[in-house]
Amino acid sequence: MSPRAQFVLRMLAWLNEEVAPRGVSVNAETPLFSTRLLDSLRVLELIAFTEQATGQPIPDSHIRMDNFQTVGRIAAVFLPLDDHVVA
Predict the structure, then answer these.
(1) CA 63, CA 65: separation in Å to the nearest integer?
(2) Cβ contacts of residue 63 below 8 Å, gap of 6+?
(3) Which pLDDT does position 8 carry in this prediction?
């Protein structure tokens, strides 16, 4: 399994176990903001989770709402297909 696929599975497990309300299932394309799944504190946790899971800090210039809309988008931005983190 690729690092990107592993990242997606780990993030989905975290979101479904720790963040999503009971009865809500998050998948890779679930909108994280328009569904109000994340509040301002959870966004910070999401950024920290992403940094920990990728092993790289996220540059301030990449902390934009459009980069964190879905788990799939997060994986695409921070774990490109060549498996190198965007710096």
Answers:
(1) 7
(2) 47
(3) 97
Between the alpha carbon of residue 73 and those of residues 14, 64, 81, the distances in Å are 16, 12, 12
Q: What DSSP designation does 57 have?
A: P
pLDDT for res 30:
97
Angle at 21 between CA 20 and CA 26, to 5 degrees: 35
Q: What is the pLDDT of residues 43-57, one digit of tens each?
A: 999 999 999 999 999
Residue for token pair 């983190």: 85
DSSP state of 29: T
Provide the H-helix boundaries in 1-87: 3-14, 40-54, 71-78
